[in-house]
Amino acid sequence: MKRLFLLDDGKDFEAVLRIGLHKRGHYPEIFFSQNKTEYQRHLPEGYDIYVLHLSYTSEEAIKELNEMQPWSKIVVKTSIKRDNFFIPEDLKSIISGSYDSGNLKGGNDIVSDLLKE
Predict the structure, then answer these.
(1) In this structure, what DSSP letter does residue 86 have?
(2) SS3 of 3, please?
(3) CATH number at residue 74
(4) Calpha distance 67→116 (Å, rounded)
(5) 29 pLDDT tier (thresholds 50, 70, 90)
(6) Which of 4, 40, 90, 110 is the S-S candidate for 97 at Cβ 3.0 to 4.6 Å?
C-alpha cells in the first residue's frame, strides 16, 4: 500500500482527494496535517507521495526531502489568494506536478496518476 503525506490548509481537500482516489480504485494510507509551522524546516520521511501546500513548507525542506528520498513523488499546491501561485524555478525540476487551490480535480488527477506508477 502506498503512503501519501498531505500538508494542506483545508480538511475539505483531504476528503475530496480521498473520495476522488477511491473512485479511481486507489486506497493509499493518507497522513493529513494542517500544521502551518511544524514542517517549515523538515518534512517527515517514509512516504511515497507528498502533496504540499507551498505556504506550509519551505523550498529548503522540499529540496532536502528530494535528496534523502529521490524516489518519492512531490506535488505542490499553489494559492493565488496567498500570493504563492508560482513555482520557484529551482523546484520545477524536482516536483512531479502542481495545481492551484481552485482546481481540486487537477490535484486528484495528478495524485491518481502517480499512484499508478
Answers:
(1) S
(2) strand
(3) 3.40.50.2300
(4) 23
(5) very high
(6) 110
